[in-house]
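re: ur msg from earlier - yeah i can do the S-adenosylmethionine complex, just paste it... oh wait u already did. ok heres what im feeding in:
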Amino acid sequence: MKNFLKKITKNFQSNKKNLVKKKLGFFSDSEGILNRYLREKENWESHIQNTKKFILEASANKQKNIAVILGSGWLLDVPINELSSQFQKVYLVDIIHSKQIKHKISKMPNVELIEHDITGGALEGVYNLIEKYNTSNRQQLDEIELINTNFGLPANVTPDFVVSVNLLSQLDYFALAYLKKHTSFCPISLGEFKERIQKTHLEFLPKLKTCIITDYKETVYKDNNPKEIIRETFLLKVKFSDKEIANKWKWTFDTQKSYYTEGNTFMNVMAINY
Ligand SMILES: C[S@@+](CC[C@H](N)C(=O)[O-])C[C@H]1O[C@@H](n2cnc3c(N)ncnc32)[C@H](O)[C@@H]1O
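and the outut:
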């Protein structure tokens, strides 16, 4: 009976998690990333190579027991073969892992997939705010707890090396989009929630064991002409010191005007030893 109840509770929790992911759009986003990559393959190549190279450089001086990759997605920008041969164990953490990635990883005995909300609860919090309480009450938004759950790793696993890979600027995206669609929170409240999610992410990362790769500004050029900037958006609410920033580069993100119809979109990316 005890086991039966345990199973039902587990199933219910897993169904609820899937519902949250579905409602918040993670399933379609995961496919969206891959489709854009396939359309822009050559243009993304230098960004992908820069990211992989930086991850391997950052891993060089770390202990080689446990590596954790946050935002691993399709592993486009993750040097998984090298990491799995360097480290005893590699955990790949993302809100969702595709069946193709599950298949690929099944051939790597020391790599494990974890599906987890890396914000520590923003997604379920926002989902409950709307579905359960149907409220735009600022206090309730502020009360959504972001709890350090050690990225969903098994208890007593302590990472030697953590990578936050092209994730920081994305972490708040679905929670905010869902809030914008279903509530009347003002831009200031939404901006503060975004800031809390990004700041908390940095607090959860173990200092001196972490590297972060993130876009920090998106720029839209008219007709691919860098002199004609149509729009420039800063993506981060957190700051890094010059000492922490090891490298910067430009990522040719969308040349088909499918992200913004007005022009071609470039991401400005930085690599951080944290
Ligand atoms: C821009 S992609 C990074 C690229 C990825 N490494 C790849 O090769 O596909 C950002 C990743 O972060 C994941 N992500 C976004 N928000 C998340 C969250 N709250 N918790 C866990 N993963 C999240 C997305 O599912 C996606 O795979």
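cool cool. Strands lie at 66-70, 89-94, 111-115, 161-165, 210-221, 229-234, 245-254, 264-273. ping me if u need the other ligands too
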